Amino acid sequence: MKSKRFEVLAARPVNQDGYVKEWPEVGLIAMNSPFDPVPSIKIENGRVVELDGKTRDQFDMLDTFIADHAIRLAGAEKAMAMDSLEIARMIVDINVSRKEVLDITLCLTPAKLTEVVGKLSIVEIMMGLTKMRARMMPANQCHVTNVKDNPIQIAADAAEAAIRGFAEMETTVGVARYAPFNAMALFVGAQVGRAGIMTQCALEEATELMLGMRGFTTYAETISVYGTEPVFMDGDDTPYSKAFLASCYASRGLKMRFTSGTGSEVQMGYAEGKSMLYLEARCLAVTKGAGVQGTQNGSVSCIGVPAGVPGGIRAVAAENLIAMLLDLECTSSNDQTFTHSDLRRVARSVPQFFSGTDYICSGYSATPNYDNMFAGSNWDAEDYDDWNIIQRDMRVDGGLNPVREEDVIKARNKAARALQGMFRELGLPEITDAEVEAATYANGSQDMPDRNVNEDLKAIEEMMARKVTGVDFVKALDKAGFPDVAQNVYNMLRQKVAGDYLHTASIFDDNFHVLSAVNVPNDYHGPMTGYQISEERWEQLKNIPNAISPEDI
Amino acid sequence: MDQELLMKQIVEQVMAAMNAASAPSAPKACGGCVTAANYPLAENMAESIKTPTGKPFTSLSYEKVISGELTPEDMRIAPETLEMQAQVAESVGREAFAGNLRRAAELIAVPDERLLEIYNALRPYRSTKQELLDIAKELDGYKATVAANLVREAAEVYEKRDRLKKF
């Protein structure tokens, strides 16, 4: 006889997911592997000669880079001699300030950082996220893409996402040659929705930098680093090339962060028998050593790997915490789809959502999942009300807010028309009124008419050849009768001259006033400190349009 | 994503692999440094910021972009501004980040196309040791000392780890 209960359970979404038993020898283990190195450091004449059990002659490229660049040496021997449990307790102790914790953790090696966070429960990790996050108030980032690379839809979705609260937006491409249109549509659409939103376009490294230099984007994030040397080589980079690339961005006034995450090394087959979290700690040390202000981490596109092993989702939260213990901006993933279960996908996001991180998702899909070109997201446009109501239920600020349908329609329509006008003034293929209409009311690309792709791609090639830049967007928008949008695009370009937003965890408010870990640092030290939801913000968060008011009854 | 397939792939790759077998820049001593108290510089020190073309930040305007008086070359950051931002970073204990901003300040003079080429040359197996040393020398010519030293350091490490161009 078969149990009917088990038959029902077997059919549940959670049992459609894949799971794997730990296999520490090959790195299929989230954290606390018996094969992780024992933390150690030895410094002679101001130079690290031993790191996590290896002497300098045994160093691989990452060890060398980390030893030479990533660790604050003054105080390192003292900090490394401390009991990891004591450091773990300081992280959750409200009487020990964030700065006091950093004074220790900035001196630690990757193996020691891994050991410290390994002492914390998931709730203690969340406490750590609340306290160690760099910027005082949390924020959120979204993906704006679609399967057709339709720029009018990108502009409309970006405008909607802006009024829904996202501070940063990321696009990418189905067809690589479409990148310039996607980037400019995102830029313009975002600035229609709210002044001061930062936008990026994820591409191959050199192309991504080129678009930034031309003023099509205002920041970059897809600068991947890996925790073992062979995987780094497979990624076609080294810590040195990536450090150079980081400086290239800053030299053009562009904000940037690196990307890494647990599971990438085992997925690419070279985990060297180390735990996923230890390898991620190495990635974060490389990020720190390169002098980059922040990271997108939390397994990111490899989430299926840690999610398959015991304690994997705890490790993902722990890696976010290590980023913060290195004083890095933490853009905490919660992006790629990893489960069939709605319960699991919420539970996966609880640590970052409820604790608050610099950017909770990186990103939240601002489209239906079928249009998400980053292989789907854990959260998408069809979950907007779920997110808003969870914020309202728990009284947490997850960076979004309820909106009114008429405001969304208005913003989408204006973004589509602004792009229509800009295309006309730049001599690009026509955006028809029918396309504007469709984008105004669309849910996804299934609601959009097809464009002439060959004509678009030819126009893009020609536009790039004549060296169109962000300055031309400003002029075209002005000429097209959208001076307010043009002004916002101009103000974003102007910020690159001052460079304030290069700093850790920066965002802009709608007056282009920068908010970063420099002028609004997180000062959490117990109840009623740190970020508190203001009365005004709570009004915004709690007032969902479908709540019945007592006066109505 | 088909997770089971992914897991199989992982295990296969793992098996295949088994069978196959400069210190952070020192803070600069400076009197009258810019600090977090001056930040954001666009609001609190606007008079001290200039474009690389020598125009005061306060003279930039939307109208001048529309009239064509300002060009894309005017909408860039200057080395002096990055130095000020590096000092802000140091004032809040971010020495490594400050080092990156100083390295960046040196690279402002390098044209876009050349910068992209140098980045590509630093990728694994792209350059011989001599080619990297030549790039370092070229960067010296731009007075990009910190960046040049990073390239020299890479040349040494790539040689040791066998990541130079193969013939």
Structure description:
The complex is a heterodimer of chains A (553) and B (167). Chain A has helices spanning 4-10, 61-69, 76-81, 84-92, 98-105, 110-117, 122-132, 151-164, 179-193, 205-213, 229-234, 239-251, 264-267, 276-289, 304-308, 312-325, 342-355, 384-394, 405-425, 433-441, 453-465, 470-479, 483-498, 535-542, and strands at 41-44, 47-51, 54-55, 141-143, 168-171, 198-201, 219-224, 255-259, 294-296, 329-331, 364-365, 507-508, 514-515. Chain A has 553 residues and is α/β, with parallel strands linked by helices. In chain A, strands 6-5-4-11 form a four-stranded parallel beta sheet. A four-stranded parallel beta sheet of chain A has the order 7-8-9-10, with helices on one face. A three-stranded antiparallel beta sheet of chain A has the order 1-2-3. In chain A, a hairpin with a 5-residue loop joins strand 12 and strand 13. In chain A, helix 7 packs across helix 17, helix 8 packs across helix 19 and helix 19 (405-425) packs antiparallel against helix 20. The mean pLDDT of chain A is 97. Chain B has helices at residues 3-20, 41-44, 62-67, 79-91, 95-107, 112-121, 129-141, 145-160. In chain B, 36% of the residues are buried.
